[in-house]
């Protein structure tokens, strides 16, 4: 395969449909499936040993000891000492769980690597392989050197002969940096017979293609993972459970068998995929598919073949685009691996870092989102490149999204590592709620996969460098952040809905969880990431060796990106708003309130809150109209950029509306009561308002863009359109993109400057702002708690969980936690009573910093209250 080259601009040609597409421009499916195999192997090993280490009670006995000690000490210990003692007990428990789970994962990885390193020596000895004599087989050495040079290999592998195998064949094996090429003696005999010309070259070229594709180490590690998982994890776990805790044998055995089958299926998929890529690579170098036949296989290999059938291999060689399809099975496995690992890692981190409750689950979701997105994103990029090369519309990823959602649900069901029980039990108790939340997850995964193809459509034509790999790696970070945030928000919402038996509450938590300065920033950056490709676009675009049957580069169709169009609604609103402000002395918002007959009474703060509520309602309409209009005009999702344009239009329109409609009432309020109008009030008020605008803008704009996409999809069903869209619109000139890039950079810096203090408060590094001393907090109106035992711990914990969903900005945060602590003080658990009575007074007066108390309450409610 010749190296990728851009070529001269004049030599670039447009893409042509029906040509053989180059599958080596992006990460191969072999690498994706290998990442999936290793992730599931290590996650299953950690979860299995965690289950065994927990004993017959699955860690519940250990949690109960900490809970009992906390209840016993509640009568004589101060609240702060009580919290610290309880968290210390849980921290020791977390260390034990970490040693069991993480130790098993590390040991499994080390043994897999050791087996891979030692296996070539064992293979040489067991199969009695001997080096080929350079004097006797000089022509063979010359053939291997010549073909290795054709493949672009820097090092020629060492040639070994298997004198016991009479059938033609060979194999490349070894590990970095020493590789071997094993040839059956039958290959040499067949090459000397009449009609056997080219057999040796075909076999050698195919095996050298494995080296060229760098899949030899992947093959060795894959085979080692299967045997190590069975010998180090599967069998020992089942035997230990049968001897020590036979009551858990059915549960442990079922989970271990399912994990073993999944590992074996993935290993077979890796081995089959590598053969296809080697066949295509050898065919590009001028070789032909080795005529090895299809000998009868044992029933196990027939059920789980390690090599593809010859017919399938021939079809892939004729049409390499088959390797670039988006396989839903990969997304299914990615979902299983992400959910299985996130649950176990989140619980352990929660115990190791009990004072930081939210970061533990967010970090665990983000950690496993990286390999999961590496798999799903690679499929999206491959399928999108195939569609662009054929002049077709990018895939929508419906099957992949369904597979990802199904995998996440299956992974949660298979995961036993939760202190409150298993997801399987929770879903079994409330099947209707579980089904509704699963449909919500399906919708989120479909949106995510559609966004992945949007990113690929935007960035593939704008990619620079010799390969397309940097474009893929650049999209991996925002994709992993998006999946991590979404998976964290959905799992938390699903658990709340299942515990409370309330679907509406779960949906509320789903949208409240990302209502956080840091997480909302992630969602905003991810939504707008495709638009960043516009700054990289060149005209004419750089050519790529998209087709295998011609070395000359061709151009991928450039995306029609119109960010200035997305800014048009905000610019129009700005002009109209300035004119309206001049014509209305009282301000647009106040004039509108009066026109609607609204006469907010009370102090200026109540007036301001009423105006703010009306303002948000106005933004809903403005953003929906702006987003829908831009989505309809800016390609309407044909090139995949409709939703991104819509989000940009919504956010900019909302920001302009904030400055116009809210500016004069805020100024009047500050002049009326300067004591309230200080930096803290501005931070809390404007910060809350900005978060609300952005959250509403994201939701309603995606809804508007989806409406436009749905109408166009129905139109496509009613009439067929022939030919591909023309993509001949020249991107904006540098004089337009330069100032826009500068404005974007300033806006990003301003956004992070505003969000930095909000992050500090949200994540517990700073205290929420106290109201001025001249006016008491609204939390002072919360009634004091009643006598202990007048309420239940379950209801009190539910109230505390709802308080945890309240953004820690403004007075509502203190009101929510004052109410929660009052309910905790009325519960029937001594630990909760002590914490509630101690912190109620602090929450009532809005003079507290109790992240440790909040974490302890959450952990206690999850462990002792069921």
From TrEMBL:
<feature type="transmembrane region" description="Helical">
    <location>
        <begin position="503"/>
        <end position="532"/>
    </location>
</feature>
<feature type="transmembrane region" description="Helical">
    <location>
        <begin position="646"/>
        <end position="666"/>
    </location>
</feature>
<feature type="transmembrane region" description="Helical">
    <location>
        <begin position="472"/>
        <end position="491"/>
    </location>
</feature>
<feature type="transmembrane region" description="Helical">
    <location>
        <begin position="608"/>
        <end position="634"/>
    </location>
</feature>
<protein>
    <recommendedName>
        <fullName>Peptidase M48 domain-containing protein</fullName>
    </recommendedName>
</protein>
<feature type="transmembrane region" description="Helical">
    <location>
        <begin position="433"/>
        <end position="460"/>
    </location>
</feature>
<feature type="transmembrane region" description="Helical">
    <location>
        <begin position="98"/>
        <end position="118"/>
    </location>
</feature>
<feature type="transmembrane region" description="Helical">
    <location>
        <begin position="686"/>
        <end position="714"/>
    </location>
</feature>
<keyword id="KW-1133">Transmembrane helix</keyword>
<feature type="transmembrane region" description="Helical">
    <location>
        <begin position="218"/>
        <end position="240"/>
    </location>
</feature>
<feature type="transmembrane region" description="Helical">
    <location>
        <begin position="360"/>
        <end position="381"/>
    </location>
</feature>
<feature type="transmembrane region" description="Helical">
    <location>
        <begin position="252"/>
        <end position="271"/>
    </location>
</feature>
<feature type="transmembrane region" description="Helical">
    <location>
        <begin position="734"/>
        <end position="765"/>
    </location>
</feature>
<feature type="transmembrane region" description="Helical">
    <location>
        <begin position="564"/>
        <end position="583"/>
    </location>
</feature>
<feature type="transmembrane region" description="Helical">
    <location>
        <begin position="393"/>
        <end position="413"/>
    </location>
</feature>
<keyword id="KW-0812">Transmembrane</keyword>
<feature type="region of interest" description="Disordered">
    <location>
        <begin position="774"/>
        <end position="794"/>
    </location>
</feature>
<feature type="transmembrane region" description="Helical">
    <location>
        <begin position="322"/>
        <end position="340"/>
    </location>
</feature>
<keyword id="KW-0472">Membrane</keyword>
């Amino acid at each position: 395969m010749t190296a990728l080259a851009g070529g001269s601009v004049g030599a670039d040609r447009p893409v042509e449909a029906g040509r053989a597409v180059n599958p080596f421009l992006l990460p191969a499916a072999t690498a994706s499936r290998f990442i999936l195999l290793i992730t599931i192997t290590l996650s299953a090993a950690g979860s299995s040993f965690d289950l065994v280490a927990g004993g017959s009670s699955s860690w519940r006995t250990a949690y109960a000891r900490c809970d009992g000690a906390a209840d016993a000490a509640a009568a004589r210990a101060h609240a702060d000492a009580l919290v610290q003692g309880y968290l210390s007990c849980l921290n020791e428990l977390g260390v034990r769980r970490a040693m069991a789970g993480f130790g098993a994962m590390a040991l499994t990885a080390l043994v897999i690597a050791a087996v891979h390193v030692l296996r070539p020596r064992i293979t040489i000895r067991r199969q009695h392989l001997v080096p080929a004599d350079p004097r006797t087989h000089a022509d063979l050495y010359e053939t291997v050197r010549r073909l290795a040079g054709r493949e672009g290999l820097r090092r020629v592998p060492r040639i070994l002969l298997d004198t016991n195998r009479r059938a033609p064949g060979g194999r490349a094996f070894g590990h970095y940096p020493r590789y071997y090429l094993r040839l059956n003696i039958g290959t040499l005999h067949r090459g000397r017979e009449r009609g056997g010309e080219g057999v040796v070259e075909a076999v050698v070229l195919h095996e050298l293609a494995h080296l060229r594709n760098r899949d030899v180490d992947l093959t060795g590690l894959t085979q080692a993972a299967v045997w190590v998982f069975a010998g180090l994890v599967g069998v020992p776990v089942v035997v230990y459970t049968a001897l020590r805790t036979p009551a858990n044998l059915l549960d442990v055995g079922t989970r271990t068998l399912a994990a073993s089958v999944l590992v074996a299926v993935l290993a077979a998929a890796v081995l089959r995929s590598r053969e296809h890529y080697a066949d295509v690579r050898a065919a590009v170098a001028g070789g032909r598919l080795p005529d090895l036949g299809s000998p009868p296989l044992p029933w196990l290999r027939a059920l789980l073949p390690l090599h593809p059938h010859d017919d399938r291999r021939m079809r892939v060689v004729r049409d390499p685009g088959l390797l670039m399809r988006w396989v839903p099975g990969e997304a299914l496995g990615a979902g299983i691996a992400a959910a299985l690992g996130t649950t176990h890692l989140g619980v352990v981190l929660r115990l190791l870092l009990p004072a930081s409750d939210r970061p533990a689950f967010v970090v665990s979701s983000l950690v496993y989102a990286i390999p999961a997105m590496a798999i799903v994103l690679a499929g999206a990029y491959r399928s999108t490149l195939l569609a662009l090369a054929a002049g077709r519309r990018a895939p929508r990823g419906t099957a992949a999204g369904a597979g990802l959602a199904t995998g996440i649900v299956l992974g949660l069901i298979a995961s036993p590592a939760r202190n409150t029980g298993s997801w399987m039990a929770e879903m079994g108790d409330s099947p209707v709620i579980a089904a509704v939340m699963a449909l919500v997850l399906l919708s989120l995964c479909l949106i995510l996969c559609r966004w992945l193809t949007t990113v690929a459509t935007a960035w593939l034509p704008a990619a620079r460098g010799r390969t397309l790999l940097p474009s893929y790696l650049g999209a991996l970070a925002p994709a992993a952040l998006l999946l991590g945030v979404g998976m964290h928000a959905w799992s938390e919402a699903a658990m709340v809905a299942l515990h409370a038996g309330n679907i509406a509450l779960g949906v509320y938590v789903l949208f409240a969880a990302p209502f956080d300065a840091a997480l909302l920033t992630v969602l905003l950056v991810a939504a707008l990431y495709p638009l960043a490709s516009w700054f990289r676009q060149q005209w004419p675009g750089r050519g790529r060796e998209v087709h295998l049957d011609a070395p000359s580069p061709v151009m991928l169709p450039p995306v029609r990106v119109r960010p200035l169009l997305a800014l048009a609604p905000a610019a129009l609103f700005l002009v109209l708003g300035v004119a309206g402000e001049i014509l209305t002395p009282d301000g647009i918002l106040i004039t509108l309130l009066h026109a609607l007959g609204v006469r907010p009474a009370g102090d200026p703060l109540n007036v301001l809150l009423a105006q703010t509520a009306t303002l948000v309602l106005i933004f809903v309409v403005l953003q929906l109209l702006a987003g829908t209009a831009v989505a309809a005009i800016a390609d309407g999702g044909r090139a995949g950029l409709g939703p991104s344009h819509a989000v940009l239009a919504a956010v900019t329109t909302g920001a302009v509306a904030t400055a116009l409609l809210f500016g004069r009432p805020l100024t009047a309020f500050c002049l009326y009561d300067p004591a309230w109008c200080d930096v803290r009030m501005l931070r809390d008020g404007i910060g809350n308002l900005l978060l609300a605008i952005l959250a509403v803008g994201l939701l309603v704009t995606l809804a508007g863009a989806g409406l436009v996409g749905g109408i166009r999809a129905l139109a496509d069903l009613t009439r067929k359109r022939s030919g591909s869209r023309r993509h001949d619109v020249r991107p904006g000139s540098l004089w337009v993109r330069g100032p826009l890039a500068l404005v974007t950079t300033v806006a990003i810096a301003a956004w992070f400057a505003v969000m930095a203090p909000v992050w500090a408060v949200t994540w517990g590094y700073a205290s929420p702002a106290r109201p001025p001393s001249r006016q008491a907090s609204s939390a002072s109106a919360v009634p004091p708690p009643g006598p202990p035992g007048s309420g239940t711990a379950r209801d009190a914990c539910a109230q505390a969980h709802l308080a945890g969903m309240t953004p820690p900005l403004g007075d509502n945060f203190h009101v929510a936690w004052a109410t929660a602590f009052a309910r905790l003080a009325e519960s029937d658990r001594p630990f909760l009573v002590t914490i509630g009575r101690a912190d109620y007074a602090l929450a009532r007066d809005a003079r507290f910093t109790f992240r440790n108390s909040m974490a302890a309450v959450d952990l206690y409610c999850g462990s002792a209250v069921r």
